[in-house]
Design brief:
EC number: 2.3.1.30
Shape: elongated
Organism: Sphingobium indicum BiD32
CATH class of the largest domain: Mainly Beta
Strand order of the largest sheet: 3-6-9-12-14-15
Helix content: 40-55%
Number of domains: 2
Protein name: Serine acetyltransferase
GO molecular function, one term: serine O-acetyltransferase activity
CATH topology of the largest domain: UDP N-Acetylglucosamine Acyltransferase, domain 1
Family: Belongs to the transferase hexapeptide repeat family.
Structural class: alpha/beta
Length: about 250
């Protein structure tokens, strides 16, 4: 009696998931096309592997994980905790054992959620925690038991080794926060987590500030030079002294 309702619930969840993927990737023409994505299959395999892992069937969990990696190119450890509507665009992504991923997270190709030496004082937790709505651009590395806040963006090829505030956009090696135009920030989705403009690059801002300071110094120096070169008339005291000596 409950089976039809259960099947309907699964179908609705699947449709909602496929629609969420389509909202983040304009390439597919239909939901059926999304079902061919390796990232979708990676998540499906991981759901099975994670259940086996929690049941302490570690060998079977690893077997499913290896099959998934062979078929999709993505390596998600069975122990990783992954929320709803997770999407890996393209592939060759690595997710470590103690990684925790929230809802509506997007990872692009060649992303690593890697671990570090547990001697940092956090026993057992070696991999990152990603909040809801996080986007990690292609080639980015998020390393260690750091926390990436909700709706944060990690730009392409960035290396994150420290906690990231909610809503921050991180770029560079090591990753640092950058300013983003409010119109771009308010968009629901930022492809690759990377603003396609250099107007708010922190390095460029520093150079512009230095350029302004140099221009001000040059202007002041020119004023001083002009003041020094201006011919001076003798003051009245010097005239009186010269007359007295005469």
């Amino acid at each position: 009696m409950h089976a039809p309702f259960g099947n309907m619930w699964m179908v609705r969840n699947l449709i909602a998931y496929l629609d969420s993927v389509k909202s983040r990737d304009p390439a597919p023409r239909s939901r059926a096309e999304i079902l061919l994505y390796p990232g979708v299959w990676s998540l499906a395999f991981h759901r099975v592997a994670h259940r086996l892992y929690r049941a302490r069937l570690y060998f079977l969990a690893r077997a499913v994980n290896h099959l998934s990696r062979f078929l999709t190119g993505n390596d998600i450890h069975p122990g990783a905790k992954i929320g709803k509507r997770f999407f890996i665009d393209h592939g060759f992504t690595v997710v470590g054992e103690t990684a925790e991923i929230g809802d509506d997270v997007t990872l692009y190709q060649n992303v690593t959620l890697g671990g570090t030496d547990p001697a940092n004082g956090i026993a057992g937790k070696r991999h990152p925690t990603l909040g809801n709505g996080v986007i990690v651009g292609s080639g980015a590395q998020v390393l260690g038991p750091v926390t990436v806040g909700a709706r944060a963006r990690v730009g392409a090829n960035a290396v994150v080794t420290k906690d990231v505030a909610e809503g921050a956009t991180m770029v560079g090696i090591p990753a640092r926060a950058m300013l983003v135009d409010v119109t771009a920030y308010q968009r629901d989705f930022m492809p690759y987590g990377t603003p396609c403009t250099d107007c708010f690059d922190p390095e460029k801002q520093k150079l512009e500030l230095l350029q302004c300071e140099v221009e001000q110094l040059q202007k002041r120096l020119a004023e001083l030079i002009a003041e020094q070169q201006k011919p001076r008339l003798p003051d009245e005291d010097s005239l009186f002294k010269a007359r007295d000596r005469a």
